[in-house]
Amino acid sequence: MITKQDIPQELTVKIEKLSNLGLGIAKIDGYVIFVPNTCPDDVVKVKIGKKNKNYANADIIEIIEPSPDRTEPFCKLQKVCGACQLQFINYEAQLKYKKEIVQDVMKSIYGGSVDIKDVIPSPLIKEYRHKIQYPIGQTQNSKRILAGYYKTGSHELVNIKHCPVQPEYCDKIIDFIRTKSEELGISGYNENNGKGELRHVVIRSSNYNKNNLVILVVNSYKVSNKVNKLAKLIYNELENISGVVVNFNNKKTNLILGEKMEFIAGCDYIEEQLCDKIFKVGAKTFFQVNPLSADNIFKYVKKYIKDNFDSPTILDAYAGITAFGICMSDIVSKVVSIEEVKESVELAENIIQENCIKNIELHQGDAGKFLSNETLLGRQFHITILDPPRKGCTPNSLDYALKLTANKIIYVSCNPATLARDLKYLHEHGADVEYIQPFDMFPHTYHIENVAIIDLKNVQVPELKLPY
What we know:
7-stranded mixed beta sheet; CATH 2.40.50.140; Rossmann fold; alpha/beta; single chain; 9 helices; 26% helix; CATH 2.40.50.1070
């Protein structure tokens, strides 16, 4: 095999496939070269950057022969904004490559054979993103307020006036906030010295009724008169604003939202629709950013359960606002839901009451503790739905799921790598992965949502450690 010393600083390569982070992969006698902004079948001249033992990173000097799957990005800022990595690839090809990403990850981590279906596309490929999180900055000399996304691999803020993957009205909201902040003398945040008042603007935008919840994240512990005035201007002068809240985050952290909120005007949620049911979504509520694609997932899971079970019992773990449980409530005998975030559980209670749902049992608290207690009580469910964050499940949580579930686990994941890891663990205990159905939740990015159907008829339940 060739070594890193043998790789010249400039060379021509052909891109073979995409990595799970959307980088083009070329190989020279087994030595891997990662090239951003490339497509399989591109022939490119590259400049080699940092070399490691088995791989190197490189940048494009010239596209010598473009892939037939290349297309012109519809956003002028695609090359500098880090949000839409794959927009230069036509959409049908994006779906093909995302399936290949899932296949490659499963092969390298899970190891066994898995039936991976074709990716179900997003109903929209523009204006699909309904949660917007813009860092706020300020120019040094003119004091102009900046709002946008960071350049790839940097903290250099790209000032974005129009983003075609977000609802068009959100551009108007952001532009209004820029203008009024400058007029009111509100400063943008400087992450280098920790100074500046307005740190982020977050918008939860409803596909259902087009209303918007605006969250102003401030580098403070109280609402200043200037920010209070800005919040009321947003609510009073803009259309389709359901409410404005202020979030306090004065810590040097990468987290966008702090713990405390203060409600300023309107109401503190938007409404969204899934499976013909209306959900309330607050500032901190976990809810999929692509509601139409999310609706596809929920209807898919519901159809699978309806076609294969007769009034089953369901455990809805990592439930958020209990969206899965609420959507499934009319085809099951009982849903037991566990969620750690108090705000999400309170919103779920309201939704359940407003929809007159009688067969959902809500629990607020740590999922691990709850599953441990349920194991001790000896309760069992026909189906467990797991929808964890990107880091996936802990081995203990998977052990509890195996113990508590009689028939199927439906695992919904936004991270193919942690899904593959967790499926391997379940398979080692006898679980059979029937198939994986990918959904495109994030067009023009390397992200891919997956629904794994897991059969437990041959499971050997591990000896459980009950730390709680």
